[in-house]
Write a structure and sequence with these properties.
single chain; about 180 residues; elongated; MFS
């Protein structure tokens, strides 16, 4: 390397920053693999009781959220048909939840850096829980367009909450266990 260049090492590569009118060189660094050679440095710290509790609560929340989304499927089509909704309408109501997650999760991914993940986790889970309860009260709404519209609104809000919860829980787990992401997730 040229002596005029400043070398910055990262865990993956060495990037040579050239002076004016020189080319940029990116070289693969050998030190990034050095930790594999030393078995002592490859050992990860033990998981504490607090971390086990956090893993349990996050995944219990994920399980309850997934359960609340899927338990509606056997019951809602019959009730929606009784209220005058067509199969296309209640199919769109179900898919609006997942479509909302698909659209908003990248936005929450950027937002999680600005908002504390714990706040996003609690807010998303709370919104999801409220929407699940409201969805249970849809049988009290008169049939027709009002039923379909409220079901759409509730499922979209539920999707917003679920996207926040899923994004925040993944962020919290990844930040708490940087060396064990594949194992913990």
């Amino acid at each position: 390397m040229d002596t005029k260049e400043a070398v910055f090492w990262s865990s993956y590569s060495a990037v040579a920053t050239p002076t004016i009118q020189e080319e940029i060189f990116v070289q693969r660094s050998a030190p990034s693999r050095a930790w594999f050679a030393n078995s002592e440095s490859a050992k990860l710290p033990k998981i504490t009781k607090k971390q086990w509790l956090m893993i349990g609560l996050v995944y219990l929340g994920n399980f309850c959220a997934a359960m609340s989304f899927s338990l509606q499927a056997p019951f809602f089509p019959k009730k929606a048909t009784e209220k005058g909704a067509t199969p296309t309408e209640y199919g769109l109501i179900f898919s609006s939840f997942y479509f909302t997650i698909f659209l908003i999760a990248p936005v929450y991914g950027k937002l999680v850096a600005l908002v504390r993940p714990n706040l996003m986790l609690n807010g998303g889970f709370s919104l999801t829980c409220v929407c699940v309860v409201l969805f249970g009260f849809l049988n009290l709404v008169p049939g027709g367009k009002m039923f379909v519209a409220l079901a759409f609104v509730i499922r979209i809000l539920e999707g917003l909450g679920a996207a926040a919860y899923i994004t925040a829980s993944s962020t919290i787990v990844m930040s708490e266990f940087p060396g064990r992401i594949g194992t913990v997730l």
